[in-house]
Amino acid sequence: MKRVWKTPELDYYNLYADMLQQPHLLIAGATGSGKSVVINGMMTTALKDSPAAVQFILIDPKRVELVDYKELPHTLRYSSEPGEMVQALQEAITITDNRYRDMARQHVKKYGGGAVYVVIDELADLMTTNKKQVQPILQRLCQIGRAANVHVVAATQCPLSAVIPTPIKVNFDSRVALRTRSGQDSRNILGVTGCELLPRYGQGYYMTPEGCRLYNIPMYETETPDIIEYWRKQKPRIVWNG
């Protein structure tokens, strides 16, 4: 993929940092449109913080996109099998519920500790393998996670209503829309056509509650492997605080 380092408005770090600040984020586009670039950019940005500040639960049905992050000290769980993926979502619910209990004891409305990112590489695979189990768990996680600093980042190349049903979609008010196969796919993501006219890769619409803007999508080309290797070497020295 062609490297695009900056946009007129934001540099690559600030763009991904802003995406990480959203309660939940949906990333959608056709095969080869750059979904993995966005995910890796966000995770590389997140890895600039310590495991005390950022933790991952990774759901990787294809077993190739997120596997490089599997052994990092930030990673609480890596799941690629259907049963394990459901368990990973349930673990995220447990973490969220525990945080709400802590919040109740402290009489606060927002959790002040580290962020947990539940990263789903291909939502379509997750929904088609066990939709009856997955949908209510994912829906509840999206509804209650934001105050507990638990965030869902989900990517899909199939932005269909069967993959992103309305009860789940309404919780993703922040979205990245890359090139789509059709105007209907564009409408399913953003509510309007236009993504089908984007270049094959390198550009996408970033929608938040504040509005929707077109950005160049930047790549971390050498930084990602370097920071992964750094944290992999640190793992034996990390002691989790729970």
Automatic annotation (TrEMBL):
<feature type="binding site">
    <location>
        <begin position="29"/>
        <end position="36"/>
    </location>
    <ligand>
        <name>ATP</name>
    </ligand>
</feature>
<dbReference type="Pfam" id="PF01580">
    <property type="entry name" value="FtsK_SpoIIIE"/>
</dbReference>
<feature type="domain" description="FtsK">
    <location>
        <begin position="12"/>
        <end position="187"/>
    </location>
</feature>
<dbReference type="InterPro" id="IPR027417">
    <property type="entry name" value="P-loop_NTPase"/>
</dbReference>
<dbReference type="InterPro" id="IPR002543">
    <property type="entry name" value="FtsK_dom"/>
</dbReference>
<keyword id="KW-0547">Nucleotide-binding</keyword>
<protein>
    <submittedName>
        <fullName>FtsK/SpoIIIE domain-containing protein</fullName>
    </submittedName>
</protein>
<dbReference type="InterPro" id="IPR003593">
    <property type="entry name" value="AAA+_ATPase"/>
</dbReference>
<keyword id="KW-0067">ATP-binding</keyword>
<dbReference type="InterPro" id="IPR050206">
    <property type="entry name" value="FtsK/SpoIIIE/SftA"/>
</dbReference>
